[in-house]
Amino acid sequence: MRNAPHSSFATILSCVTLSMACVACTPKSQMKLAAENAARPVASGIEGMRWVVGDDARALHTTISAMLKSNALHECENEALRGLGFFACTLDDSTLDALLSAFGGTPALERVWFGQVAGWKSVATVVVPSQTPLSIDGRSTRGDARLYQLSFRGWTLPTLEGSACAMEFRVTADSPSLSGLPTGHGDDASTRGTLLGAILRLEVPPNTALVLLANPAYAVPADTGPDVLPPATIADVLLKNQSFKSRREVLVFLPRFADTLPTPLRTLEPAESPAPQIP
Asked: Is residue 240 part of a domain?
């Protein structure tokens, strides 16, 4: 896993919300996510969660590296958005409790039901003032004010190996305007803007969670002079929590698959013909 600057996050909210919960959580008192994951959904689709975790980049980096090494996490092929500072990984959804505990817990947890998302939905937006230094593909750059938007879509589908879920993510940049800004709360994504990087396309199997966050980076002690962090990445500014300034957000996407076959009907045995009566 490559280092990238300090991280942040925005809100996941869906156009069709079937469930949402804000729950006080601490490392000693965690919401039992795995138990809820076991409940079978009434329809196939995608569920989303937003965690607000501590902003200790060194601790997060150490935790993620250890879990990757132990195969508890599996890093996704992410060349499309890696240069923008995003890190994507998957894990067994029954281990989400352990991951959240390893991240130090969350003071606020939101759960939403996206369902089948055929059109792009905005899940994070931010307006960055002009001349703000940003790191893109490892290079520091400054420019005009920009509206950055992370959007998402996804749907369940059959495959040769069984059911799976296709998910796609993209980041766009546009000139900010005074009206019509997407909020990042699951509303329709803006149709304007320039695509940054490329579209990240993933196929997620059942019982698997996709985790998306800004790649945590921290200052490495310098031989001389003060330690200096590189400029923030696009992921950092997009995923900065606005309610808890000293925290970053983690997005979790879970494919859900409802039973599509009816309960088998009891087979009726053919009635036996009565034995002939002999007078």
From this structure: yes
Nearest to 217 by CA among 234, 204, 229: 229
Which residues, including other chains, have CB under 8 Å from residue 107's CB and lie 6 or more apart? 24, 25, 26, 52, 244, 247
Amino acid (1-letter code) at residue 159:
T
pTM for this entry:
0.76
Query: Residue 9: inside a domain, yes or no?
Result: no
Residue 148 backbone phi and psi in degrees, to 5: -100, 140
Is residue 36 in a domain? no
Residue 80 domain flag? yes
CA angle at 54 for the pair 98 and 135, rounded to the nearest 5°: 115
Q: Give the count of beta carbons closer than 10 Å to the beta carbon of residue 91.
A: 19
CA distance 167 to 48: 12
Q: Tens of pLDDT along 49-87?
A: 999 998 888 889 999 999 999 999 999 988 999 999 999
- Domain limits at 248? 42-256
Query: Residue 209 corresponds to which amino acid?
Result: A
36-54 pLDDT, tens digit per residue, is 444 445 689 999 999 999 8
Cβ 10 vs Cβ 150: under 8 Å: yes
Q: Is 85 left (phi over 0), alpha (psi -120 to 50) or beta?
A: left
Domain count, the chain: 1
Sequence-distant contacts of 130-139: CB under 8 A, at least 24 apart = 132/237, 133/231, 133/232, 134/231, 134/232, 134/233, 134/234, 134/237, 135/4, 135/5, 135/85, 135/230, 135/231, 135/232, 135/233, 136/83, 136/84, 136/196, 136/233, 136/234, 137/83, 138/83
